[in-house]
Design a protein that fits this description.
- The chain is of the alpha/beta class.
- It is built from 13 helices and eight strands.
- It folds into two domains: 30-228, Spore Coat Polysaccharide Biosynthesis Protein SpsA, Chain A (Alpha-Beta Complex); 234-279, no CATH class.
- The chain has helices spanning 7-14, 17-22, 47-55, 75-83, 98-108, 125-135, 159-173, 186-192, 202-211, 230-235, 237-252, 257-268, 277-283; strands at residues 34-40, 63-68, 89-93, 113-116, 121-123, 144-153, 183-185, 217-228.
């Protein structure tokens, strides 16, 4: 399956993200049904909007699976109410942890393709259409995985630079972040054994495993998807970048995910300083 630039992809590269989110697009029908899995924990303010926006993208054969990880707000009640009026929406519950929740959703999925979407990331119609167009040439036996380019919404002037660095790095290293909406053919996902059950860096670890599959095709799509820049706006761009790279470096050096989670907890226990660890830890689904 060879990836070629299409008019739809070129349009995605040139259009502002705000316009792309609202643009009406008739996406081509794919022979491969897609299951979108969204892990949720305490996302009451925005969960209804993201679910409705995502449901509006789906074709008849697609589905949306939202997995709540023991939310203490009204997230689960909102999801159950939405389920009553949307047949293509499944609502599940599991213990908290992004990897655990995504695996729970994948086990219930019926699609030939799994797309893992964070609750603060918007899958724009142009990105969805590009995925559909790409999958038109895939067969049900194909093994492939990929991600979208990401744009970070927020006030900091550094966010476009951060986005470009993330997209460039992941395109060549094939180590992707969950904010980039990783998608995997279901056959390949089952073959590698799903996400590792760990509290951090599950996206890095699954990409490392996927890279070992020599017969699997990597598809870095232009997208883009848009993710929240609240961490950068609240904490400052450079403190957040340095924090993220520090933990990635420690993980690369062999520090396990549970020790990194303990370091998060230690930072959270300190008096507030230059960046809000409570918010960052909550976004990472740490207890």
């Amino acid at each position: 399956m060879n990836k070629k630039n299409t008019p739809m992809q070129n349009q995605a590269e040139k259009s502002p993200i705000d316009a792309s989110i609202d643009a009406p697009i008739d996406a081509p029908t794919s022979a491969l049904p897609i299951s979108i899995v969204i892990p949720v924990r305490n996302e009451e303010p925005g969960i209804e909007a993201i679910v409705l926006q995502t449901l509006a993208l789906l074709d008849e054969q697609d589905e949306l699976i939202v997995v709540d990880g023991e939310s203490t707000d009204q997230s689960l009640s909102i999801l159950k109410a939405l389920r009553l009026s949307h047949a293509r929406l499944q609502v599940l519950s599991s213990r908290p942890g992004r990897a655990v929740q995504m695996n729970a959703g994948a086990r219930k999925a019926k699609g030939e393709v799994l797309l893992f979407l964070h609750a603060d990331t918007v899958l724009a119609p142009l990105a969805w259409a590009e995925l559909k167009q790409t999958l038109k040439t895939a067969s049900q036996a194909a093994r492939f995985w990929g991600r979208f380019d990401v744009r970070i919404s927020g006030k900091s002037y550094w966010l476009p630079v951060v986005s470009r660095m993330m997209n460039w790095r992941s395109r060549f290293s094939r180590i992707c972040t969950g904010d980039q909406a990783i998608f995997i053919s279901t056959s390949l996902f089952n073959r590698i054994g799903q996400f590792p059950d760990q509290p951090l860096m599950e996206d890095v670890e699954i990409c490392k495993t996927l890279k070992t599959q020599s017969d699997a095709l990597f598809l870095p799509l232009n997208g883009p998807v848009t993710t929240s820049g609240r961490r950068w706006d609240e904490a400052g761009a450079w403190p957040t970048i340095l924090l993220m790279w520090r933990f990635r470096f420690l993980y690369w050096r062999g520090t396990n995910a549970y020790d990194l989670a303990m370091q998060y907890r230690e930072i959270r226990s300190r008096p507030p300083a230059s960046f809000p660890m409570e918010q960052i830890a909550r976004e990472q689904d740490l207890p």
